[in-house]
């Protein structure tokens, strides 16, 4: 055969495999508003940057008629490419090939690219569109998932791991994403469950649609399994690309720095904060008035909205923001918001991203539901995560900092590096109303006009404790600052923290509350 013939033969072979599950299956995929696995990779990566491996891998299963089935690429595409020039490893499951189900060779392709990502210390992006373990391959497919979970865990905190859910994902196809750092979903397309509605109906007699059981909205708003929610696959890929600009390639590097930019517009922070301390405001407006170009990239926007987390840049460098949101539940810490904040703090710490905390909250949420839902162990995660973190940690107390909330939100006592407070800060064991009712109970009850006396005592308490100056007098607060001095003070604090070293006793690992 001439060389030309060899090349033509290779091209033919490639073309055949690249058809995935064939025309009919692709039509079905497209009719559901879904891109094919190959289109997804090309849409996500820089143009012409994708290089594929293991195109010709075939399954070796022989049972249940599998010996007569050819599954192109064994239902998954793997390779390397770049996003805005940053190298990434990627895999995309192909639902048109046996529902993207995971057999032994399919798993081996995924573990190969995972090993590569870990060895090369670059981010891993997994596009999941799979019915989970391939039933016909029995224990081999379970073994395959086990190997993936093991690698997800070993790579955790070393390289960023990103999961994209773009189809009905069941079993292992959702447990692997749950072990990764960020999970992206698309409305009406993403579904996540450990087993689908059919099995639920058979085993439990319960009827529910796929969407109501585990649609994108369910996971973005209720379960917290998803970190991002998009209206289309194209929007989802834009979100992933943006995330990649904020995070480093691995835990030994810093995120790429961008040219510094001032915040947009001329918004004065003083104009954002209402004069009545009982009135709420959107803390995201404060963040936008502080960060470069007013560009704040929020994470888990729809879940536990009483806390806001996300990335912004200060002087061109990536910063993680954690902020109580007075607009929702007065910004309290509860089980979900504690989980959300703690995990993000640990992410930032693992990947060398300084943390800025903006505090305005009345404490942990009390109540039977919260106590029985384990607010003690969930809330403890925030204490653990801030105490454990060794990246630069800076706090600004905007208004309320009461009780456990004051300690938890990166206080000096958990070894914050810099503590700033606005003059509107109220730092105390609890709010003036509650405090006066307890400590002046007798005086109020015995007064001729109890309500007048109560008001007097509330005022007395406010003047004495509900301000930043008692804490400032003890050095717990480094500086009481004007709201519009915030960006300047933060930039300076970050500047003088670049060489921060904070060594901890040697240990295998800690045991954080779960
Ligand atoms: C083999 C599978 C499959 C699987 C889907 N297919 N899931 N083949 N093993 N796990 C095949 C179907 O047979 C079908 O093949 C094609 O993929 C498309 O599937 P449909 O059912 O027609 O699609 P749809 O109606 O959209 O439903 C998708 C689905 C459903 C919700 C994912 O297929 C489903 O419930 N699958 C089983 C899910 C599951 O329980 N998986 C095992 C999880 S256990 P044809 O040839 O007809 O096109 C697991 C172990 C790890 O993963 C545990 C972690 C701790």
From TrEMBL:
Q: Which residues form the CoA carboxyltransferase N-terminal domain?
A: 3-259
One Pfam short name: Carboxyl_trans
- Output the SUPFAM superfamilies linked to this UniProt entry: ClpP/crotonase
Task: Please state every residue range assigned to the domain named CoA carboxyltransferase C-terminal.
Answer: 264-496
Keyword Transferase found: yes
Q: Which UniProt keywords apply?
A: Transferase
Biological processes, Gene Ontology terms: carbon fixation
GO molecular function terms attached to this record: acetyl-CoA carboxylase activity; propionyl-CoA carboxylase activity; transferase activity
One GO cellular component, as annotated: acetyl-CoA carboxylase complex
InterPro entries assigned to the protein according to its UniProt record, in alphabetical order:
AccD/PCCB, AcCoA_carboxyl_beta, ClpP/crotonase-like_dom_sf, COA_CT_C, COA_CT_N
Which family does the UniProt entry place this protein in?
Belongs to the AccD/PCCB family.
Q: What is this protein called?
A: Propionyl-CoA carboxylase beta chain
User: Which organism encodes this protein?
Assistant: Marinilabilia salmonicolor
């Amino acid at each position: 055969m001439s060389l030309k013939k060899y090349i033509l033969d290779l091209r033919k072979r490639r073309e055949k495999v690249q058809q995935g599950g064939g025309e009919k299956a692709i039509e079905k995929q497209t009719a559901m508003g879904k891109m094919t696995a190959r289109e997804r990779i090309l849409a996500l990566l820089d143009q012409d940057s994708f290089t594929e491996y293991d195109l010709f891998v075939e399954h070796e299963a022989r049972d249940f008629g599998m010996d007569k089935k050819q599954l192109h690429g064994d239902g998954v595409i793997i390779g390397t490419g770049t996003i805005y020039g940053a190298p990434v490893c990627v895999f995309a499951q192909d639902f048109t090939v046996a529902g993207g189900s995971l057999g032994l060779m399919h798993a081996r392709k995924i573990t190969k690219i995972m090993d590569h990502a870990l060895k090369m210390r670059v981010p891993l992006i997994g596009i999941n569109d799979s019915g989970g373990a391939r039933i016909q391959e029995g224990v081999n497919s379970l073994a395959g998932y086990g190997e993936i979970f093991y690698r997800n865990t070993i790579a955790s905190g070393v390289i960023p791991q990103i999961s994209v859910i773009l189809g009905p994902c069941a079993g292992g196809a959702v447990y692997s994403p749950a072990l990764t750092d960020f999970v992206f979903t698309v409305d009406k397309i993403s579904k996540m469950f450990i087993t689908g509605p059919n099995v639920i109906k058979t085993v439990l007699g319960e009827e529910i649609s796929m969407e109501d059981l585990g649609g994108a909205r369910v996971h973005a708003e209720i379960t917290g399994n998803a970190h991002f929610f998009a209206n289309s696959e194209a929007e989802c890929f834009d979100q992933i690309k943006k995330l990649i600009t904020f995070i480093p390639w691995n835990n030994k590097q810093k995120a790429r720095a961008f040219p510094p930019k001032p915040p947009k517009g001329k918004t004065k922070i003083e104009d954002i904060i209402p004069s009545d301390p009982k009135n709420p405001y959107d803390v995201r407006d404060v963040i936008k008035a502080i960060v470069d170009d007013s560009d704040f990239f929020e994470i888990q926007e729809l879940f536990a909205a009483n806390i806001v987390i996300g990335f912004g840049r200060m002087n061109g460098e990536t910063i993680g923001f954690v902020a109580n949101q007075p607009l929702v539940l007065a910004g309290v810490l509860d089980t979900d918001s504690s989980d959300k904040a703690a995990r993000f703090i640990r992410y930032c710490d693992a990947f060398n991203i300084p943390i800025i905390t903006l505090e305005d909250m009345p404490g942990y949420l009390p109540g039977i539901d919260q106590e029985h839902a384990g607010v003690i162990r969930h809330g403890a995660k925030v204490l653990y995560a801030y105490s454990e973190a060794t990246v630069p940690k800076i706090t600004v107390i905007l208004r309320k900092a009461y009780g456990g909330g004051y300690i938890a939100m990166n206080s000096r006592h958990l070894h914050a590096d810099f503590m700033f407070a606005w003059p509107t800060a109220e730092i105390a064991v609890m709010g003036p109303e509650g405090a006066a009712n307890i400590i002046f109970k007798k005086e109020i009850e015995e007064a001729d006009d109890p309500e007048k006396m109560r008001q007097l005592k509330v005022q007395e308490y406010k003047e004495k404790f509900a301000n930043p100056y008692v804490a400032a007098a003890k050095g717990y607060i480094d500086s009481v600052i004007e709201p519009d001095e915030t960006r300047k003070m933060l930039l300076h604090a970050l500047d003088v923290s670049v060489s921060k070293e904070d060594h901890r006793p040697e240990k295998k690992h800690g045991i954080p509350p779960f």
